[in-house]
Fold each of these.
Amino acid sequence: MSLIPLAAIWDSPDWTLARNLGILLFIVLWLATAYWTFKDARRRIADPWLVGLATLVGLFPPFLGPIIYMFFRPPEYLQDARERELEIKAMEERLAQLDQRCPVCRARVEPTYLVCPVCTTRLKAACASCGQPLDALWQICPHCATPVAPSLPALEDVSPRPRRTTRRRTTSD
Ligand SMILES: [Zn+2]
Ligand SMILES: [Zn+2]
């Protein structure tokens, strides 16, 4: 068994194939990690110039760049940040709805108030059947299912009369 000279191994077609495959694998992995950096940066960074810079870092130095990028990348996805902002806005709107004020004197009023206790301004109409406060847009009382009269009750409606309407009597009896 004779020793094969090194030069023969270097020039052998098998070695050339293995070397070329190794180079190809290196390039594919290198580009894949750089592409991953680009994709990740695009999801986290809004500024296209900074995304380009992050991609450059992902390319050079090869393989080390993406790790360096990971140290400095923003901790949050843009999508998550946007969703959180929307959530906060919705919460603020909900709080603003809770914080209702009298349109005349700006005193804080509860949603259940019929009149402003400070300036006696009429805030809401009461249900003709159960007396619960009704919102301006409601077509029907949510508490007792009585349809809301099209306009606010006039003064003569306040005069004492049987509370139960004829419609209710016909349906219940
Ligand atoms: Zn008031
Ligand atoms: Zn009612």
Note: The mean pLDDT is 83.
Amino acid sequence: MGVSGASGAPIALRVLQGLHAAHAPVALVVSNGAVAVLREECGLTPDALAAYATVTYADTDVGAPIASGSRPSRGMVVVPCSGNTAARIALGFADTLLTRAAQVHLKERRKLIVVPRETPLPTVLLRHLTALSELGVVVLDAAPPYYLHPKSVDDLTSYLAGKVLDQLGVPHELYRGWKSEDP
Ligand SMILES: Cc1cc2nc3c(=O)[nH]c(=O)nc-3n(C[C@H](O)[C@H](O)[C@H](O)COP(=O)(O)O)c2cc1C
């Protein structure tokens, strides 16, 4: 899991908590940009995220195990995914561990999910997200589900984290789907 510097640090925390609750092994990389956003939005340092991960690597550690396709992975999520990081992944940059791990998932045809958050969406970012989508990446934008009547920002955070876990095939109880009481 990569955490970059878009707004949405609480979603990253909730995803990690969900993965931890499901006993899913997680290798975590936090970008430099994410450190400032995590402090601003959650009042936390990366250590608070690391508490829920199996292992954490520095973004500068491009020789870490997850930099190689020889290490198995069920998938990777970049949540939140900044425009900067989305562009770098789409263009093939691999000069940080986060972007290198993403390139590995692309070359190995493994599941890669990005959760961008920007509004309005700039044309350049739309182009990069389109390129990622064409490469098979799931672009899971941080859009609120008004039809599920979220009552709080916390509900919204749980919903978005749950959508990420859905993509990873990890069971959770973070949100109830549309008409979930129906068979
Ligand atoms: C409080 C705060 C909120 C930000 N929100 C966003 C955002 O929603 N989307 C985005 O693409 N960048 C956002 N940024 C800008 C990125 O953090 C910045 O471009 C950074 O260089 C991204 O670095 P990274 O991709 O290595 O994490 C935000 C920055 C700060 C400090």
Note: The chain has one domain: 2-141+153-168.
Amino acid sequence: MNDLILQEAQRTISSRRLYAKSENERRYCEINEKIPQIAEINRQLAQTAIKILDTLKEGENVQQRLEVLQRQNLEAQEISAKLLQNYGYPSDYLDMHYTCEQCQDTGYANGGMCDCLKKLFATLAVNKMNEHAQLSLSSFDQFSLEYYRNKTDAQNNDCYTVMESILRACQGYAQKFSANSPSLLFYGNTGLGKTHLSLSIANEVLRKGYDVIYDSIINLLQQVEREHFGREKTEVDTLELLLHVDLLILDDLGTEFDTPFYVSTIYNIINTRINRGLPTIINTNLDLMGIRRRYEERIVSRLFAVYECMHFVGSDIRLMKKLNSAPLV
Ligand SMILES: Nc1ncnc2c1ncn2[C@@H]1O[C@H](COP(=O)(O)OP(=O)(O)O)[C@@H](O)[C@H]1O
Ligand SMILES: [Mg+2]
Ligand SMILES: [Zn+2]
């Protein structure tokens, strides 16, 4: 997957380079028409370049001639810049204008990938990861509290009231989202709306222009594992994205295999994001006892101390919808 994304990113960068070139040619044509003196200077500059080549071929007094030509060249450029300004153009109007000056839209600078290529790669990778999340199908608008009406949980709490306050909290969270919002832990039985509400948050946060990665923990860990043990290496990897993204949503914690690599990766993600103050939303069907039993102390203590825990209650809405016993809403 990484190679394809990298190729796509490189294609985008090289189209930026082509665009910079064609825009530069367009500006040359415009100026040649409007400022004939500059057209003349440009002709002289072109001749200068040819003369440099001849000088190199002749092989005599190369250094001296090059210096003279260089001086002429600089003078011509100065005159041209002044003329441009006199005609109301910026003095660098005829320079190349790249999207990224650092690599001049080649994608590579200082012997490695340029930041612009890395950034593009990361954005494309995030889009790819969110592709199979049915983002558009889950919004706050499509979340109905009617499914929780007239139900009580094991402690005899009214499910409607509990879920109403969870819904309000999630809406507020999405509205006020910032790069240092708190982390949330949604727990409770299957089919109660944990995925639905976390995708609703994702939608709003994406709309605000933040990067969000949503996926099941199984998919994400498998991807990290493939890259970690695989042969191919790219400079931007999935784990890095998970550690940096503005909002990370890990769905279905507890469904992954219990391997040392997975456990240490989960710890790494949770711990690093806490240290960086970055928000994470984790969904799990495990209850608090189940989390305690399943995970090591250093993970459990971080989840319980730092994450705001929300207990989803009610009965399986997927089932209710299937049985068509859902109230009309
Ligand atoms: N309050 C709700 N109103 C409308 N649809 C809901 C609600 N809660 C859940 N659903 C729908 O029921 C199904 C199961 O919900 P989901 O969010 O996947 O549950 P969980 O993640 O808690 O297992 C999904 O299709 C979801 O869109
Ligand atoms: Mg779910
Ligand atoms: Zn660059």
Note: The chain has twelve helices and seven strands.
Amino acid sequence: MHFSFVEKLGLSVLIGAWLVYGTNFLGSTLVSVTPHAPAMQVAAKEAAGDAGSAAAAAPVDIMPLIAAADPAEGQKVFGKCKACHNADKGGANQVGPNLWNVVGGPHAHSATFTYSSVIAGMHDKTWSYEELNAFLTSPKTYAPGTKMTFAGLSKPQDRAAVIAFLRGQSDSPLPLP
Ligand code: HEC
């Protein structure tokens, strides 16, 4: 069978139009289905009584944990920090700065330590309980490029305890939340 040039052209335009229509149709079908998927998953989880995953996704309110924390427990957690930090009054800087007076003080609070530019650049911010909690959760997420090569404390209780301990390592401890 022989097709003329015009017939071939007509045929390919037809096939082309067909493909475009088909792809569009498929695309819109797929896209319109996607928004329902998470809702279905949530519904399924609720049906299964999975409350834990929702709690894990929500940010932790660190304040009540700090108020209830035992500084003595925090001193134990501080064992993980001791490789780099001293927290005594007048203690020397080590790999990291001395941490006396850090809670409630400015970022880069030590005048004698050479900070990374990212922490030095935050000098007008205060090490509040919330800021310390965020930093200690993941130092490099909080301050990309920080010299503190420490993965972070994943347990909120550990962060609360070490913050409660550091709070006491100060000439004028910040009021408890
Ligand atoms: C591997 C060494 C290392 C470990 C372990 C470490 N740090 Fe650090 N830390 C540093 C360094 C270095 C800096 C300075 C960061 C910069 O300049 O970017 C720092 C900075 C800090 C700061 C900010 C000080 C300021 O003056 O702004 C706090 C607070 C802090 N560390 C707390 C802790 C706590 C609490 C732990 C333990 C849970 C800990 N660090 C573990 C090395 C360490």
Note: The first helix runs from residue 5 to 33.
